[in-house]
Amino acid sequence: AARKKEIRDGFEEEAEITVEKVGMNEMLNIFYKIETAPMILTIKKASIKKSFENPELLTLNIVLLFLKTK
């Protein structure tokens, strides 16, 4: 799900991402890639839950904000 909102300096786009059945190392790599992305990305909300089928795996739900200048 993506939403777009106009702000003073440009546009703010919001996207919700769900990643299922990832290990702890994969989760850290995802957060690292978000942090070091070449564009302005902000994590608005993140939830981490154990997988029902395998408690060693995780389900991530992340809401990202992307700022696009005019």
Describe the structure concisely:
17% of the residues lie in helices and 59% in strands.
Percentage of residues assigned to helices: 10-25%
- Mean pLDDT across every amino acid position: 89
Number of strands: 4
Shape: elongated
Report how far the terminal alpha carbons are from each other: 23 Å
State the low-pLDDT regions, or none: none
Spatially, the strands of the biggest sheet line up as 1-2-4-3
Query: What about the largest sheet?
Result: 4 strands, antiparallel
Describe the protein.
The chain is α+β, with helices and mostly antiparallel strands and 70 residues long. The chain contains one helix and four strands. It has a four-stranded antiparallel β-sheet. Strand 1 (2-7) and strand 2 form a beta hairpin. The longest helix has 12 residues, at 24-35. It is elongated. The relative contact order is 0.34. The mean pLDDT is 89.
